[in-house]
Design the sequence.
């Protein structure tokens, strides 16, 4: 028996209704992810990997089954508790970075700290710390448009880190970046993982998935394979 | 999220889209400016009425001979038997009469040196000054003795000083009123225009007997006549009751049979002025209604643009939710934007309202009264419009599903 899983899916299904058609995005997933794991979720589009990511990210609810984060069932939580969970436990990194264009790097990183209710943190200091951690200490007052794609994604990672999350969810984080920059970003995620953060990565690029210790392949809403790399 | 932070970022958002923000605000600006101008107008009218009432004597009953319009027939003032000095003495003895003044008036020509001036003459007694709360700024008013003996003395208004004496101190000087010499003993404080537009300071006041015996002349059939009586109702007596009692008393005195028409009228000046200003009040209500409509239309404009803004920023809302914003945080953010829009519009509107009131006062002859309350109410109206019309778009934003918002194209 290993440690209690930080993420657990129990018979999770997700059905989308599009017009009069029902799309079965997930057809009953059972999955456990241990704390500190670096997992890559792979599969073709429509295989259900992004759907699973949204469920783990507490952005969406399963049609049936249950999703647990750190032992708490998401289906029983109220919307405000889900918001707090996203704020404190989860950190999101998106393919398109999703930075606020009018705000500079520092303001973008501080954004989640605005919504932090429970602890009193020095948002400014914390945001600077995170930007330095991702190597952007010199560019804090730059706006997204003044930064390269790789730098923007670093700002996004710093933003994900600001709330001291236990889990980082990265949805195609290298999808908009060139190979060299992709590798840099992945190295950064590996470093963060080494500091104890559980990382879930969605990608369709095998070379990106190579950075993870565990690779889960999805096909047609089901897990096709689940492999751990011997380290 | 702290409200101050929300306001700060709302101001930022306002500046990010300056032209659009301004156009959105325009409705609020116009609405608030009109609300403010209308209220200032209303207050001004009310203040003027109050001032007129107090200037004319709030607790004063005025008696004039002649019939009120009854049965479709008006005899006209003066057609009936005038009052007399005996009436004055009788009225003064009534318990509810605090002060009683009798008056005769006429148009006269006054001459001082080489200067001629057409003005009005009032012959009255010392009680007149008490009832009208009118005090001398130079010299003095008549003594009861001067009133009794019919002394050739005069108290003049400010306009007389300016027109007849070129602004110099007239006390002690002699003037000729319709060729009768009188000495000026006092100058009265300035009263300004009356509600009828006449200059209340353009008057020469002399003792009643002096006026009757030496200038105006007595009535054909009634010696010691008085054309008008003012009764100041004593403290502690109700004006309306006193008015009713006075009517009964005078009917008795003038031997009017039960059922017969009054041959005199008693009115209190407050009713009179209020009746005159009723039209103005109706107009004010109408204008205030239009101002409210303008504000409403402005609010709908704000709601419209807020809905557009929510739609445009759906992805941003989704992102904020993913980062941990609660529905209430999103709500506060958009409400703050609506509030900042309307609040800024309100401030500009209030500024324009000041200007508008000033222009209306200068060109339209309206009296404007802008009080801090009016400013606060106008601003409050803008804020209320912001909250009211911002609520629906803000709620729509707050209720977005995080994943749908995040994926919105």
Sequence:
């Amino acid at each position: 028996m290993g440690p209690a899983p930080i993420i657990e899916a129990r018979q999770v299904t997700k059905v989308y209704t599009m017009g009069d058609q029902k799309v079965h995005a997930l057809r009953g997933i059972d999955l456990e992810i241990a704390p500190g794991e670096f997992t890559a979720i792979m599969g073709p589009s429509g295989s259900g990997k992004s759907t699973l990511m949204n469920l783990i990210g507490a952005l969406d609810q399963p049609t049936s089954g249950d999703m647990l984060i750190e032992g708490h069932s998401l289906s029983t939580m109220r919307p405000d508790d889900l918001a707090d969970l996203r704020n404190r436990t989860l950190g999101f990194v998106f393919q398109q970075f999703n930075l606020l264009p009018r705000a500079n790097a520092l303001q973008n990183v501080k954004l989640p700290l605005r919504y932090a209710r429970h602890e009193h943190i020095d948002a400014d200091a914390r945001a600077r710390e995170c930007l330095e951690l991702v190597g952007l200490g010199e560019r804090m007052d730059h706006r997204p448009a003044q930064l390269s794609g790789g730098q923007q994604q670093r700002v996004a990672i710093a933003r994900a880190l600001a709330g001291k999350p236990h889990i980082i969810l990265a949805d195609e984080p290298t999808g908009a970046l060139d190979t060299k920059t992709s590798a840099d970003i992945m190295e950064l995620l590996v470093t963060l993982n080494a500091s104890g953060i559980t990382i879930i990565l969605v990608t369709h690029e095998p070379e990106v998935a190579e950075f993870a210790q565990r690779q889960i392949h999805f096909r047609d809403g089901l897990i096709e394979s689940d492999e751990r790399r011997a380290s | 999220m702290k409200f101050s932070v929300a306001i700060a970022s709302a101001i930022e958002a306002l500046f990010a889209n300056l032209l659009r923000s301004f156009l959105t605000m325009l409705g609020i600006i116009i609405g608030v400016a009109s609300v403010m101008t209308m209220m200032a107008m209303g207050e001004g009218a009310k203040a003027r009425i109050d001032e007129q009432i107090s200037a004319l004597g709030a607790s004063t009953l005025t008696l004039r001979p002649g019939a009120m319009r009854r049965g479709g027939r008006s005899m006209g003032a003066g057609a009936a038997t005038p009052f007399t000095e005996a009436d004055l003495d009788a009225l003064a003895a009534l318990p509810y009469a605090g002060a009683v003044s009798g008056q005769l008036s006429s148009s006269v020509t006054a001459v001082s040196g080489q200067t001629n001036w057409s003005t009005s003459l009032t012959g009255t007694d010392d009680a007149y000054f008490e009832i009208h709360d009118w005090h001398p700024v130079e010299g003095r008013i008549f003594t009861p003795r001067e009133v009794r003996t019919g002394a050739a003395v005069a108290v003049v208004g400010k306009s007389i000083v300016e027109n007849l004496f070129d602004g110099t101190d007239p006390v002690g000087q002699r003037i000729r009123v319709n060729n009768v010499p009188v000495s000026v003993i006092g100058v009265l404080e300035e009263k300004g225009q009356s509600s009828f537009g006449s200059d209340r300071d353009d008057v020469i006041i002399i003792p009643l007997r002096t006026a009757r015996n030496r200038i105006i002349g007595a009535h054909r059939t009634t010696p010691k006549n008085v054309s008008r009586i003012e009764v100041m109702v004593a403290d502690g007596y109700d004006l309306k009751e006193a008015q009713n009692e006075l009517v009964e008393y005078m009917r008795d005195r003038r031997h009017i049979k039960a059922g017969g028409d009054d041959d005199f009228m008693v009115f209190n000046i407050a009713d009179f002025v209020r009746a005159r200003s009723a039209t103005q009040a109706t107009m004010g209500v109408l204008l205030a209604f239009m101002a409210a409509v303008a504000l409403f239309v402005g609010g709908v404009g704000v709601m419209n643009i807020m809905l557009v803004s929510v739609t445009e920023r759906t992805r941003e809302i989704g992102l904020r939710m993913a980062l941990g914003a609660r529905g209430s945080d999103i709500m506060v953010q958009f409400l703050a934007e609506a509030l900042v829009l309307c609040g800024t519009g309100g401030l500009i509107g209030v500024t324009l309202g000041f200007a508008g009131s000033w222009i209306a006062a200068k060109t339209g002859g309206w009296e404007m009264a802008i009080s801090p309350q009016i400013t606060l109410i106008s601003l409050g109206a803008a804020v209320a419009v912001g909250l009211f019309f911002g609520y629906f778009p803000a709620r729509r934003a707050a209720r977005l599903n995080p994943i749908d918002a995040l994926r919105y194209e």
Remarks:
- Chain A has seven helices and ten strands.
